[in-house]
Amino acid sequence: MNRLRRFDSKVSLDAFPSLGKTCPMLIENLQIYIERVDSHRNMARFYALELDRDLFGNTLLRRKWGRIGTRGREKLAAFDEEQAAIALFLKLLRQKRRRGYRARKRAA
Asked: What fold, for 23-98?
């Protein structure tokens, strides 16, 4: 509440329901990192996808790609609806898998 009498509205903002989305996020901070390596073509690329939420309740899809060992490039997309972000996440993942990107093999 505002404590100055002249401006006091006598209404607490805590009394109102949350200003964010009413639906909780289905997938909390989902991250995927895949690589495509072909020594015959001198190709060593990575692609990373991340789903998260910003402070305003929007769903964010962060894409990062480039040559392995470099900082790469990054693109951020904000969505009002979580389903649209998840749909694009899965579409991009399918496209990259078709092009030969795979999860990094663990060292023995």
From this structure: q64v53_bacfr protein fold (2.20.140)
DSSP per-residue codes, 49-69: EEEEE-TTS-EEEEEEEEETT
Nearest CA among 80, 27, 70 for reference residue 48: 70
**Average pLDDT, rounded, for the chain:** 82
Q: Which helix (H) or strand (E) holds 85?
A: helix 82-98
pTM assigned to the model: 0.70
Q: How far apart are CA 61 and CA 67, in angstroms?
A: 20
Stretches in the chain below the pLDDT threshold 50:
1-2, 16-22, 108
